[in-house]
């Protein structure tokens, strides 16, 4: 099997690209960190790659809303690249933290959710939506249509940095194959997953799109919104990551690339048995194996 080639997308403010490329390399892929500017000047560059990964950070300083400017730049200048990775069926897309925020703004994680009241929706509906929740002109949505879900500010309104337990649901997500639980660091300010309404949330749940969720130390999810700090941001249904219908496009807020080695675990010196790797590595291995 030839090693799949990964395009780790950089933008001004990206700060997890080196670790993310390293995680992919450790899993057997070939990873290159490419600045968004290099892609806009040579749009055919993306054709050399099979995996697109948008890593974590503060692209464009999180101005307007985290991920918004990079997503807009991609939508306007790199539409062919988005099509190549998202729609072709042969490639994978991973967004980590700021990368998930970009994928949410692009609308590629929540496609296929029906909007029953669309016919009656008016421009006033859009005006009436809470402006502080980042509801905006997500991809391909007419001005008056509110996207099925978004990411907004953590409940406490601050940047939160801590380790979290995660439970993996049965979904088609390629990256989470054969993983039940993970312990990973999260580090974000705008990571609260909010569905447009109960109907949109149920559609995403029924379609197996809510791939990974915050849980307690035993892997249990006892309530629809677990208390802080188990659910670090107060997001709906404890959602930490979402995949598209095919399972090839996946975004998650916690950082798998920060737990690929067992010694990155906060209590590693106190553990009786050292696992061979950190919990996050399997996600990158699953991506590589998908091409085998
Ligand atoms: N670690 C990250 O990628 C941070 C994401 C984003 N800047 C936020 O604070 O929400």
TrEMBL record:
GO CC aspect terms: cytoplasm
Organism of origin: Aporhodopirellula rubra
E.C. number: 6.3.5.3
SMART domains: GATase_5
Keyword Transcription attributed: no
Cited SUPFAM superfamilies: Class I glutamine amidotransferase-like (SSF52317)
Keywords, sorted A to Z: ATP-binding, Cytoplasm, Glutamine amidotransferase, Hydrolase, Ligase, Nucleotide-binding, Purine biosynthesis
One Pfam family from the record: GATase_5
The protein's enzyme class: ligase
Protein name per the record: Phosphoribosylformylglycinamidine synthase
GO biological process, one term: 'de novo' IMP biosynthetic process
Keyword set includes Mitochondrion: no
Molecular function in Gene Ontology: ATP binding; hydrolase activity; phosphoribosylformylglycinamidine synthase activity
